[in-house]
Amino acid sequence: MTDVVNIIFLTVILVVLALAISIVIYNVVTGRLMKPLENLLQVSASLSSGDLSKRVKVARYDEIGIISESLNRVADKMQYLINNLESNVKQRTEELHTANMKLEKNNSQLQLILDSTAESIYGVDRNGKCTFCNVSCIQLLGYNNQEELLGKNMHQQIHHRRRDGTAYPIDECKIYKAISQGKGFEDDNEVFWKADGTSFDVVYHSYPQIINGEVVGAVITFMDITERRKREAEIQYLSCHDTLTGLYNRRCFEDNRIEYDTPDNLPLSVIFADINGLKMTNDIFGHTAGDDLVKKSAEILLQSCRKNDVIARVGGDEFIILLPKTNKEDAEKILAKIKTGFLNARVAAIKCSISLGYDTKTSIDQPLEEIMTNAENAMYKDKTMNRNSINKDIIDTIIETLHSKHTKERQHSLAVSELCGKVGSALNLSEPKISKLKRAAYLHDIGKITLDESILDKETLTEEELEKMRQHSVVGYRILNLFDDTLDLAEYVYSHHERWDGKGYPRGLKGEQIPLISRIILIVETYDRVLNNDEIAVLERKKQAINVIKDGAGKQFDPVIAELFIQIMNNGNTL
């Protein structure tokens, strides 16, 4: 029994011991197997919570070990990335800032280039809205800054109407065609509209903006050509018009007259006109007065003709007038109207006059050149037939103008002419000679017409004014030399201030080199000047005037004529 108990006891002890050993072995085995897994789970939990400092201890190289190593590498990589993230972000931020600065600099340089160009430039997107514009564009369109244009529909803003104010449809706009058709367009016959509602002539070029083969908008360059248009218009005008009168010039008339030589314009009358006295006006009164005469004549022609008549200045003093649908009777009425317009017209001291001739084309078979030639011949016939009366009118107008401005000059001319006639009779000159003497005496101061009134009215002249005064005999000679009726008087007027002693002017003639009529005029006109000095009594003036002639005999005056003249005056024949 005891043995059985011992055996049972021993068995129990062995069982307990075996159980303890099993437990120990289990714990050892379990710990070896489960601890890496627990460590793996702990590290995973730490990594998921953001703690990247934990690592899995790799005890063996089974599946758990491989997973552990992978997890450790992931943790290392994450730790590396996180540790370098700040520097990477800083580096990337700096790189982005550098890129932005470079882009901004490029944009600034581009804007600077755009703003430096003389041409105005702006861009639009596919919808026609402004995407950019330069300073020239802003200023030319009358805006203050970009913001007033950016995002705005530029067609509605600046290109909405034509020059005449009518609407400009967008589908006809070449700027939009550049976008829709993908090719460039240009135009120099349109206008852009400013902020203040005014327009200006413009030349513009529109180019499509293409990115990756797709049109994304357009770039438009433009310039204000208002001044260019004005210059072109002026050049065109000057090429076809006479600068002085504004009438058509010869070249334009010749180039365009065929347009009027049509059956619809028959009968077609032609008037040829020629100004009288233009050369004399230019020679005596200067080209300014001559220009005034031409302009005045052109004005009268314009006033006398109808709206559809064509007037051209084809020479210095010549005009041609085309009268469409005008028969001879109506042409004669227009001629009469022109002559009436010239009746009382004057320029300076010149009475305006014009010679006229006309002819009428009644059949299309008649050459217009022949009609013009006939009109010109008729004009020359008119000029020839009326030459004497025209010249007389011009002379009379000059002397009347002089006398109307200076009453004393009129009285002086009449007195000298009358007294010269008496001297001529005393010298037993022939009647024709006496007539010539009186005419020359009456016109001896005609050259004073070119003198300023202030000089004629002054008692004492400066040296410069005196020199101008001395030119009146030369001017008188030129005037009288231009007309047949006074040609024989020119030399006497030219020499009426020459002195017997050769100290006179303008040529310094001496003694009998001086024409007789000139010697007589000098004595008489000197006497009359002194006689009409109102400062002293009449008898005293006469005595003083005779003494001047007496003292000048043999020096200023022909002594023989001077002595005869004194005898005449002392005999009381005249004052």
Summarize the structure.
This protein is an alpha+beta fold and 575 residues long.
CATH topology of the largest domain: Hypothetical protein af1432
Count of helical regions = 21
The number of E-state strands comes to: 12
State the oligomer.
Answer: single chain
CATH architecture of the largest domain: Orthogonal Bundle
Main traits of this protein?
Beta-Lactamase, 575 residues, elongated, five-stranded mixed sheet, 21 helices, Alpha-Beta Plaits, single chain, 12 strands, alpha+beta, five-stranded antiparallel sheet
Describe the structure.
The chain has 21 helices and 12 strands. The strands form 3 sheets. It has a 5-stranded antiparallel beta sheet, sandwiched between helices. By secondary structure, the chain is of the alpha+beta class. A hairpin with a 4-residue loop joins strand 1 (120-125) and strand 2. The protein has 4 domains: 2-75, no CATH class; 117-229, Beta-Lactamase, CATH 3.30.450.20; 244-385, Alpha-Beta Plaits, CATH 3.30.70; 393-570, Hypothetical protein af1432, CATH 1.10.3210. It has helices at 2-48, 63-116, 135-141, 154-158, 174-181, 226-240, 250-256, 278-285, 287-304, 328-342, 368-385, 387-405, 407-426, 431-442, 453-457, 463-470, 472-481, 490-494, 516-531, 538-552, 559-570; strands at 120-125, 130-133, 185-193, 199-211, 214-224, 248-249, 268-275, 310-313, 318-323, 346-347, 350-351, 354-361. The model has no long low-confidence stretch (mean pLDDT 87). The relative contact order is 0.04.
